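Students often ask why we bother predicting the structure of a whole assembly rather than each chain alone. The short answer is interfaces. A chain on its own may look different once its partners are present, and contacts between molecules only exist in the joint model. In this exercise we take two input lines together and write out one structure for the complete complex. Read the inputs first and try to guess which parts will touch.
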Amino acid sequence: EADIYQTPRYLVIGTGKKITLECSQTMGHDKMYWYQQDPGMELHLIHYSYGVNSTEKGDLSSESTVSRIRTEHFPLTLESARPSHTSQYLCASTASSGITGELFFGEGSRLTVL
Amino acid sequence: AQTVTQSQPEMSVQEAETVTLSCTYDTSENNYYLFWYKQPPSRQMILVIRQEAYKQQNATENRFSVNFQKAAKSFSLKISDSQLGDTAMYFCAFILTSGTYKYIFGTGTRLKVLA
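Now the answer. The structure tokens for the assembled complex follow.
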């Protein structure tokens, strides 16, 4: 069973607010990812990290930022939320030293910006 | 650049029947992994089955099996004895075993199992 946790699961906020979506994993994985997914639609990679102090932007441009100060923690921040940010955000992780290549997902954070 | 294509946006199947979801991919590399992921409504994405490209034998996991055709770059998922709990979005995914470690996902197939 995957040990990757996202909080909050659901968040409704007003325009202009700053929000941070938390993602933590207890598997010691070095690689972590954030995907944006509208309900029932495809996944878009917005950020990824290959280890501590390593972050990269993904294929979909996003106004969010991420940090990776600790191996287990990969938070995503929106400085000023807008209705266009309404979506589901999925965090995932994997171990580059593993033999399976499996990507483990959190349960997602569903964000609604009014 | 690698791509993954799922040409069936939606499918339905009767309970206890068999259904096959299609996936094709494009790469010039020789070593990679292929995956099928399942995302039930409002629930966590989980791995269904994986295939290493160097293995000719098709992977199987209980009722789930794949038809891996490396030359044709095809990776279809067969679900036998479909159950109501199989209702979900299914994503085909690809990753090279070396390099950027960026997963490439298809656009998904929404499968509905009918009672």
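Check your guess against this: Chain B touches chain A through 22 residues (CB under 8 Å).
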